[in-house]
Design goal:
By secondary structure, the protein is mostly helical. The protein is built from 3 helices and no strands. Helix 2 packs antiparallel against helix 3. The chain starts with a helix and ends with a helix.
């Protein structure tokens, strides 16, 4: 209950402070954000992260598909219904581990790409700041 009250108080305080700043300040902040967002270095990093995410996201469905194929093959082998069920359950458990490893690897790769993009963006911003102060 305390958490909900804190959220309501925080939202109310944000609303009051935001309304005091006014529309002009909001537009000024929005304009500054959009100006920074649309710079070449930021968009370069956004592109890198988006590409890494696409590449990583394609790896997981193949692990899921492979697992489904293994379960299906196990369930259609020769043997008694009990043996088929046991084989399908074992294949499902084995596939579960493969999918979990794939998901962890995907998450790790996305995190590495995001961390590298942030580091590159910071370096670009630092270089731009020094170039601006030197001239």
């Amino acid at each position: 209950m305390k958490g909900k009250i804190g959220i309501v108080v925080g939202l109310a305080a944000g609303y009051v402070l935001g309304s005091r700043a006014g529309r002009e300040r909001y537009e000024q902040i929005k304009s500054g954000f959009l100006k920074a967002w649309n710079t070449a270095p930021v968009q370069k990093q956004v592109g890198k992260v988006a590409e890494a995410g696409k590449t990583a996201a394609l790896a997981l469905p193949s692990a899921i598909w492979d697992g489904a194929v293994k379960v299906t093959k196990a369930a259609t082998r020769n043997g008694s219904p009990g043996q088929k069920l046991d084989a399908a359950i074992k294949a499902g458990k084995d596939s579960k581990a493969d999918v979990a490893r794939g998901a962890e690897a995907t998450a790790t790769e996305v995190k590495k790409a995001a961390d590298k993009a942030v580091a590159d963006a910071k370096a670009d911003a630092h270089a731009a700041t020094h170039a601006a102060t030197d001239s």
